[in-house]
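Example S7 (structure tokens).
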């Protein structure tokens, strides 16, 4: 059974811009999928619908066991437990240490201190940054900050990890390091959905490719290619 399923989903912003039109797709558990397309195509809007940053206004959508159209506001935190999110600009809390940034994601869902401590060490080990546990975000390089953000996103063992341009601010070497991590997380069973403009990555590390243009899905390929010149 699919872990993400959208049927005829549309999204219009309040200013009248239709960002997505009749999007239907299914993603199976454990898949790694790239979302590609020109700037303004609707990729970010698509991703925001999946973790309920935005509400779908037509059609239906399911992520893990949650119905996106029916989910009540008070149940959004439960959805976010099943869906980890990583952004281009990391979005770490600047006044918290690496430890605290990750621990916080677990505290808000009521995990016990002992479990938090164990898990924070575990995910930092996975991303190779245990030695930075006491650092603040501004003491880390961009690549390191993104690795902490990834550690935080998987702290609660989400079924789905969504990444919006995770390598957008990184040089090629750091970008590949991030991809190695996402690959590792995917191999451990997490479904990954990644919006990207990085043609090198898409064309080298082959996975399913879904292309969006003008709010519509125009291509859906197994082991696909990037397909644009930018
Ligand atoms: P992408 O991520 O592919 O660059 P977006 O999802 O950000 O595309 O944008 C899709 C369309 O929706 C664009 O036309 C964009 O200008 C518009 N859009 C994005 N965010 C908003 C918003 N908050 N209000 C109005 N229009 C928006
Ligand atoms: P205990 O009281 O069991 O010794 P602590 O809370 O003092 O546990 O933390 C032990 C280790 O956990 C620290 O050495 C560090 O690696 C990590 N740790 C716990 N809290 C923090 C924090 N706020 N900032 C950085 N590291 C922390």
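Recovered sequence:
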């Amino acid at each position: 059974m699919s872990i993400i399923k959208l049927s005829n989903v549309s999204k219009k912003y309040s200013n009248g811009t239709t960002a997505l039109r009749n999007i239907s797709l299914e993603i199976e558990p454990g898949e790694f999928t790239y979302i590609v397309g020109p700037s303004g195509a609707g990729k970010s809007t698509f991703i925001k619908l999946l973790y309920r940053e935005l509400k779908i206004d037509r059609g239906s959508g399911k992520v893990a066991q949650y119905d996106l159209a029916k989910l009540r506001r008070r149940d959004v935190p439960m959805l976010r437990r099943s869906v980890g999110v990583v952004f281009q600009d990391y979005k770490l809390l600047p006044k918290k240490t690496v430890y605290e940034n990750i621990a916080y994601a677990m505290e808000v869902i009521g995990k016990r201190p002992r479990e938090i401590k164990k898990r924070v060490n575990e995910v930092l080990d996975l991303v190779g940054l245990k030695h930075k546990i006491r650092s603040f975000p501004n003491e880390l390089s961009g690549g390191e900050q993104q690795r902490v953000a990834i550690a935080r996103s998987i702290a609660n063992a989400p079924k789905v990890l969504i990444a919006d341009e995770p390598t957008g601010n990184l040089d090629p070497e750091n970008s590949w390091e991030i991809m190695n991590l996402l690959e590792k997380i995917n191999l451990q069973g997490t479904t990954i959905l990644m919006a990207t403009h990085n043609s090198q990555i898409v064309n080298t590390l082959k996975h399913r490719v879904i292309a969006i243009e003008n709010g519509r899905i125009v291509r859906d390929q197994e082991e696909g290619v990037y397909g644009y010149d930018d």
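Notes on this example. The chain is about 30% helix and 25% strand.
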